[in-house]
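Protein modeling request. Please complete all fields; requests missing the sequence field cannot be processed.
Requester role: graduate student
Desired output: 3D structure, token encoding
Chains: 1
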Amino acid sequence: MDILLVASAFNSLTQRVYAELTDHGYRVDVVLASHGTGPVRAAVARSRPELIIAPMLKTALPEDLWREHTCLVVHPGPPGDRGPSSLDWAITEEAPHWGVTVLRAEAAMDAGDIWASTPFRTARTGKSDLYRNEASDAAAAAVLLAVRRYEEGAFKPLPQSDPSVRVVWRDPLRQARRRIDWAEDGTATVLRKLRAADSQPGVLDEILGREVFLHGGHPEDRLRGRPGDLLATRAGAVCRATADGAVWIPELRPRKNSGDPAPFKRPAAAVLGPGAPRAEPAPLELPAGRDTWSDIRYRQQGDTGFLSFSFPGGAMSTDHCRRLLAAYRHALTRPTSVLVLGGARDFFSNGIHLNVIEAAPDPAAESWTNLNAMNDLVEAVLRTTDRLVVAALGGNAAAGGVMLALAADEVWCRTGTVLNPHYRRMGLYGSEYWTYSLPRRVGGRTAGQLTTDALPVSAAAAHRLGLVDRLVPACAAEFATEVDRLAAELAGTPALGGRIAAKAAARARDESVRPLAEHRRAELARMHAIFFDPAAPYHALRSAFVRKTPSGTAHPLAPAADPLGGSTR
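Delivered output (569 residues):
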């Protein structure tokens, strides 16, 4: 069956739905509605789909389309829930359970007949994390069920006028409702407001006389001060006092009309500049009972070390890479036979930090510095020969983040993970030793196809290809616990010593054939040519991505421009 996905952006959920449907044998095309109705109508005329699905849509489908075709809309709310701020309200009202509903498009928003719905348990986390994990799992299940029902032809969708459906309209959650009263709001209230807006739209506030949006929030158990005061910075985040405690806020976004030339999300301390408060050290190992924020943590259980990290949006700046490399080197000093890299829920890594690069005085130079810092980290993993390294992906990974994972000896993925093992859609050749790591896992031909087709790959497909060694069928909330169990099992394997010795021998053989330094030199020569060419597509693509402006094609699966000539497929 031919299916057309219509979306406002090729975001994580659209990629998940695309990958899942493709895995199930459906022929799937995608068109972006953000470019207007013309490309959508053209895509329908071109592909003649039997079914149209909108996984993430900010604008209404044209009436002629939903009248002439079966168009199913994915709504991140339970049956009967209506309105554009569904997950925001779920977090704000602390709903213990929520759901995803697939319904037919019609004139009234979210009012169509119900084709499928899947409930999920909410987690005490930010909206974007919830969206990419629990809600994404539910959405994938609901879409597959709805498609199967449509294909079989016997199912009668449930009208929302049915007595079993409780219709609730939820107005958009405006900034007036999100506003934080620092003098009155306690930490729990502040965190709830921050988490309900962590990715978009953020919470509008004023800091040091500047209007900014606050993004993300984590509790702090020791620092205290006058409510609203800035207390400290740590790893780019800022700590701010609440009425009864304090919270850490990782990112700020200057308001567009503020005159700031970089009105997009960045590490909070970078946005504040010289006005940022004193820096607090970032604890790598926390004693029992502490409840504070740090983006990198290390812990040890028996013969297994766990180096976890969580960076907003999965983006890794030069500073992130250098601090993670220092933490990795610390982990290597500990007497373990297995080292787990990652293991947290949500993004593993998406590679270099495009927002920080875009805001830099010299984006080309910062691109180069950031990439080399990322390469240093990946090289350290590749050169580890005295223990097994496991990359545990609880969430999505892309570009250099995938190559960081592939540097490990084993890659474990939660079953809901989506991988983008390519760089071309940002106009880049790529580095992070991909010319070594990718072919050694999947072979040269498949490596070439993955990097030139530039399509998202589900965890299941990645496992079939050899990118992933183990699928972890756990929900996001249980992933870390399951990784702990599997890692302990691996550390207790009698043959582990032999595997480590064989790994060291294989690394020595590979080095004699083509040294890692040669892979790095060749990759960086291509990347240097791109970074320092003002006319290279990378610069316009990066700026459009960061500033959320149209970047050209309305077809996200169209061949991407090859920065070195030709097309990518």
